[in-house]
Amino acid sequence: MRIRRSLTIKQMATVSGVALVTICIFIVIQLFHFVQQRREDYAQQLQNIAMSVRLPLSSAVLKGDVPQAERILNTLKPVGILSRADVVLPDDFQVLHADFPPERPVPALIARLFRLPVEISVPLYALPRPSHPRALASLVLQADSYRLYQFIASAFSTMMSTYLLLALVLTVSITWCINRLMVHPLREIARELEMLSPQDAPRHQLSLPDMHRDDELGVLVRSYNRNQQVLAGMLEDLNRLSTRHAETALPNKNLFTAMLDSRMALRKDPQQYCLLVISIGTLQEASGVLTEAQRGILLMTLTRQLKRHLNDHRFLGQLNHNEFAVFDHCIQNAFEGMQLAQGILKSINAPLTIGSLSLRPAASIGIALRQRSEESAHQLLRRATSAMMLAHDNGKNQILFFEPKLTAMVHRRMTLESTILEGIEQERCALFFQPQVDIRNRQLIGAEVLLRWRQDDGSYSLPSDFISGAEEIGAMVPLGNWVLEASCRVLAQWRERGAQLQLAVNLSAKQLQESNLVPFLKVLLARYQIGPAQLVLEITETARITEFEHSLDLLRQLRELGILIALDDFGMGYSSLYYLDRLRKLPIDLLKIDRSFIEKLPEDLVMLRIVSAIAEVLSLPVIAEGVETQAQLQCLLQHKINWGQGYLFSEPLPQGDFEQRFLHLAAV
């Protein structure tokens, strides 16, 4: 009711405002018109008065009879509208005037707006002549402005009171009409919509007022009803699509979960049941390769393959565009669940031909078995999905059962990302430096940057799975960028102290996949004014070789900047000639022999000889990691490997300790 009353008040205020503005404009126009008429009347009266005394006054002026002229002017004093009567010579010099009472003042604004006072000038002539009478002087008469001001004030107050009353009448009348013709029908429509229940809303139709069938309100109601009909049809289609997949007509995730919950509620006995979540990676990979029609054929073909494994105690659902789920409530043990998963995987892996394309689809399957009777459908589906995701991470065509430790692993990975990002902000990350030396003369040639994490007790270490965990959760890029910038900052500090050293920084495969790595390094080199040859980026050979192939262009861009590239863990990757041929094409400047080969020296020299020979063929310098004994050092020298790093020279050191022990050995 408050809203309705405020609407009426707003209507009346609007109508009153419009009426008031209109009336004010009308009053001003009419007032100027009346005043102009009154000015013309005054001017005419003044003209008549002047003509009545013109001849005798002209005669008196001609004769020089001043007393007579003054008497004539004084005869005009009883005329009520006059406030001035003067005789003025042609040069505007006043020679005679009547003594009128002082004129009452008129507001300056009124005088300026209405051009007050009203004044006329009548020439006085000499004896009449047939042609060109000469004017001796002029009679100037001025009307009393205060009388005209009183007229203006009286007219304005009269019109204002009259028209304000008229505005009030118009406001009430117009407001009543608006309320009767518009507000009341709209109020009925609003009340009808307000009382509408959510269940009836999609199919509701407004009733059309009788008086408004052909006006805008009728158009509004008919448009609303038409839109409601369209909406009802769309909701019916949406309701159908919300429970079934549009292409396969399989139950979607919502319907499948409801079916799963219902079926699990019926199985109160201790009998086992099993849920499989199947991710067909080929469906996702085909999105950018196949046409929409080809992808539809692939989807329907795989759906038919899955349906072949259904029976009376199994049902199938489609969780999203490339994930399916199969529930079996009669599985007796894990072995039967594995048999079902293997049969499904075999069907999916069967070769397919779509047009001119030959495909062998791949999938990842996660299995969750019943753990307790009070388990919900969402919990079972979540466990099976977790197993499927882990199977996908392990490679193609993998089948894994859910294990309780998976939950802890997922939680740890979820918290690891925030821990890493918070650690960067809280400066828990630190750089340690291990010197790299020329083992022939113990000359310092550079250092490798090693990441360390400050523990709660103040010590620095790095858990063995820290880097792999950061890569899995996607936190390696911000962490690696922090290491790069911190390393550049250290190089700038050393340059200021006159030391020129090379710093080797490990670059993860995730960073190599980032398109903004090169621009980021350009910014760092410019910001800290570092020579690009001072920065050595180490890439790991044990990463998947396809990642190197996809990153060749980026590595070439880094080389063009002048940054050196080192291949870390050399010898730990694949050893086929095909691999070595691809290795030859990599834009690298340095090889690093993995510590696992060095620790076998001097007893086992085979791998050292092989790696040394490969490096010689590729014409690349080699640095050995993990040098700890003099015997290892002598073996390296015998095989022309002149650079090394390891505990024989120094353990990784904090920045301050490294600078104190080694910075004076750097080139100046």
- Main sheet characteristics: 8 strands, mixed, barrel
Low-pLDDT stretches: 1-5
Return the structural class.
alpha/beta
Helix content bin: 40-55%
Briefly, what CATH class of the largest domain? Answer: Alpha Beta
Distance from first to last alpha carbon: 87 Å
**Named CATH architecture of the largest domain:** Alpha-Beta Barrel
| C-alpha-based Rg, rounded | 51 Å
By CATH, the topology of the largest domain is TIM Barrel
Strand coverage percent: 15-25%
Looking at CATH, the homologous superfamily of the largest domain is EAL domain
Domain GGDEF: 271-404
Transmembrane segments: 12-32
Organism: Acerihabitans arboris
Keywords: Membrane, Transmembrane, Transmembrane helix
Describe the structure.
This protein is α/β, with parallel strands linked by helices. The chain has four domains: 7-99 and 106-125 and 136-166, 2-Layer Sandwich (Beta-Lactamase); 201-243, no CATH class; 253-402, 2-Layer Sandwich (Alpha-Beta Plaits), CATH 3.30.70; 427-663, EAL domain (TIM Barrel, Alpha-Beta Barrel). The protein contains 22 helices and 21 strands. An eight-stranded mixed beta barrel has the order 12-13-15-16-17-18-19-20, surrounded by four helices. The chain has a five-stranded mixed sheet with strand order 6-7-5-10-11, with helices on both faces. Strands 2-1-4-3 form a four-stranded antiparallel sheet. The two termini are 87 Å apart. Residues 1-5 have low confidence and may be disordered. Residues 413-666 form the EAL domain. Keywords: Membrane, Transmembrane, Transmembrane helix.
